[in-house]
Specification:
By secondary structure, the chain is of the alpha/beta class. Helices cover 35% and strands 25% of the residues. Helix 1 crosses helix 6 and helix 5 packs across helix 6. The relative contact order is 0.15. 5-O-phosphono-beta-D-ribofuranosylamine binds next to helix 1, strand 5 and helix 6.
């Protein structure tokens, strides 16, 4: 059975690109990238979607009277495309409970830090400032908190003495581009089981 995927983005979309590439290479099978939704009109991720023939939709938060109204439009759009799995690929807003409940255990986020450390907007910067020697990224299911849902996959990278926020972020990004498709593959193959906070990998 095909898994219809909806991707929420706000920015450049390099993670979206990696997912597109993994679909096109055949690594991700029985998957359709059905729609890409952005809350930013000029997000380059929308262009990436169009180039690859994926419907790209801008939903303007400012033309909605409330966050709830804006998110209703997101849900409507996802339902229009009969989306089964929602990916947050650089989507820079916290989702409200209606979206989360509608897609319970079916929303994944990629975060540029080894959670539960360094939640929020600046994972690599916080890691550098804290002085950790190992940094990394996390794919997790989304719950009502910020970067707090059950962890699916993590990958670590070394922090080097001469790292800047940019060099560390790009080392982490390489790993994001690897583990996000891996998590999607596990999901679409029915190999993930969520038990409270714990995500178990099951081989069918
Ligand atoms: C990534 O670092 C991701 O972890 C974070 O936002 C960034 C998005 O980058 N959530 P891109 O738009 O996929 O290039």
């Amino acid at each position: 059975m095909t898994t219809n995927i909806g991707v929420l983005v706000s920015g450049s979309g390099s993670n979206l690109q990696s997912i597109i590439d993994h679909v096109e290479s055949g690594y991700l099978k029985d998957v359709k990238l059905s729609v890409v939704i952005s809350d930013k009109r000029d997000a380059y991720a929308l262009e990436r979607a169009k180039i690859h023939g994926i419907d790209a939709v801008f939903i303007d938060p400012r033309s909605h009277v409330s966050k709830m109204d804006f998110e209703k439009k997101i849900i409507e759009t996802l339902q229009l495309y009969t989306v089964d799995l929602v990916l947050l690929a650089g989507y820079m807003r916290i989702l409200g409970s209606e979206v989360i409940q509608t897609y319970k255990d079916r929303i994944m986020n990629i975060h540029p830090a080894l959670l539960p450390s360094f939640k929020g907007l600046h994972g690599p910067r916080q890691a550098l400032e804290y002085g950790v020697k190992v940094a990394g990224c996390t794919v997790h299911f989304v719950d009502e908190g910020m970067d707090s849902g059950p962890i699916i996959i993590q990958s670590s990278v070394p922090v080097k003495d001469d790292d800047t926020e940019n060099t560390l972020a790009s080392r982490i990004l390489e790993q994001e581009h690897r583990i996000f498709p891996e998590a999607i593959k596990l999901f679409t193959e029915g190999k993930l089981k969520v038990d409270g906070r714990i995500v178990l990998r099951r081989d069918k």
